[in-house]
Amino acid sequence: MTTNRVANLLRRRESPQRPTFLELFFDLVFVFALTRIVHELVLDYSRDHVAETLSTSLSENGETLLLLLAVWWIWTQTAWVTSKFDPFQPAIQFVVLATMLGSLFLAVAISGALAETGLLFASTYVAIQVGRTLFFVLTLRGNVLRRVNMLALVWFAASAVPWLAGALAPGEVTRNALWALALAIDYLGGRFGWPVPGLGRAQVSPWAVAGEHLAERYWQLVIVALGETILTSGSSLLRGPIVAERTWALTLSFLTTVLLWRIYFYRAGQILGEAIEASADPGRLGRSAELSHLLMVAGILATSAGFELVLMDPSGHARPAWVGAILGGPALYLAGRSVFEYVAFARVSRPRPIGIVVLAAMAPVMVGLPSLWVAAAAAAVLLGVAVSDAIRAHGRPLEQASPPR
C-alpha cells in the first residue's frame, strides 16, 4: 500500500471517537460466547463431586477460566484494532468481520474445548491472532504500527506452539498446562510491548490516543455480559415449570442484574475516558482498567451461573460450590469495581470492600439453606452498596475524574 492509503486506514485524532455500529455488531458473537462459558460453569457446579467441595469447584472453574481468558484476549485485541484504525474503511471492516466469524467458531468450540473440540478451539484462536496480525504486517508498510504488529506476530507464533500442542495432548493436566503457558505468552507479550531480542519492544499504547473510544468499548462489553445474564435466566425459567419460586428467582436475577449495572455506571463508569485523558501515564492506567473489567465480567458470568443453579432448584439446599458461585460472583464483581474506582478517583470507597467481606463471611452460614435465600442475601449486599453510593452522592456535585499520579 502507498503511504496515503495506509494513512487512510488510521483513525484521525479529530474524527469522532465513539464506537461504530460495526463494533456493536461484532459484540453479538460475544453474547453467544459468554453464554457458552456460563453453560460450562453450570456444568462444573452440577457435578456431584464438584458441588460438594469448594476447592474442587475452583479447580474445575480454572479450566473454564482458560477459555474465558482466550475469548477476552480476542475481544481486547479487536478493540485495540478499532481504536487505532478507521472502522469505515473496507479493509478494516474485512478484518473485523473475519475476526467475528472466527470468534463464532471459537464460541461453538467452547462447549467441548476441554475434550473433543479442543483442536477446533486452539486452531481457531491461533488463526485469528496470527492471521489478523499478519494482515497488518503486510498492509502497513511505512507506518510505525507495522513494527508493532511484526513484534506481536513473533509472540503469537510462539504461543501457537503450546496452543496446538495442548489441543493434541492426551491428558487434561498436560493440555491445561500447555494452554496456560500459551495464554501467559500472549498476555505477557501484550503487557510488555511484545519485546523481541535485537528488535526492542513496541512503545505504542492504544490508551494514549483513544481513551474515550476504548472506555466506551468496555462499557459495551459490560452491557453484553449483563445481557447474557438476562438471556440465561429467562432461558432457564423456560426449561422447567413456571411456578412461584422459580418466578421469584427470575425476578431476583433481574434485580441483581440491575444492581450490577447501577454499581458499575455510577460514577466511575461514566468518566473512564476522562480519567485516561487526565492521567500522566494513560498506558498504565488503561491496563488497570482492562484488569478491572476482566474481573467484573468474570464476576457477572459467575453470578449468571449462580442464578441458573438457583432456577434449577430454588428451594433445594445450596451445596458449597453453589454458594461459592452465588456469593462469589458478586464478590469478584465488587473487587473489579474497586480497581475500577481507583482508576477513576485514586481511592476506593468503603462499601465495596465491606461488601466483599460480608459476602465471604456469609458463605459458611449459607451452605445447606435454600438456594433462593442465598441469592437473596447476595442481592441484599449489592443493594446495600448501591444505596450507600446514592446516599454519599445525594446533594453533592458530580465527582470529577482524579486518576492516580
TrEMBL record:
Sorted UniProt keywords: Membrane, Transmembrane, Transmembrane helix
Residue stretches spanning the membrane: 21-39, 64-82, 94-114, 120-138, 150-169, 247-265, 291-311, 318-336, 356-387
Name of the protein in question: Low temperature requirement protein LtrA
PANTHER family, sorted: BLL5714 PROTEIN (PTHR36840:SF1)
Naturally occurring in which organism (per UniProt): Micromonospora coriariae
InterPro entries: Low_temperature_requirement_A
Keyword Nucleotide-binding: no
Taxonomic lineage from the root: Bacteria, Bacillati, Actinomycetota, Actinomycetes, Micromonosporales
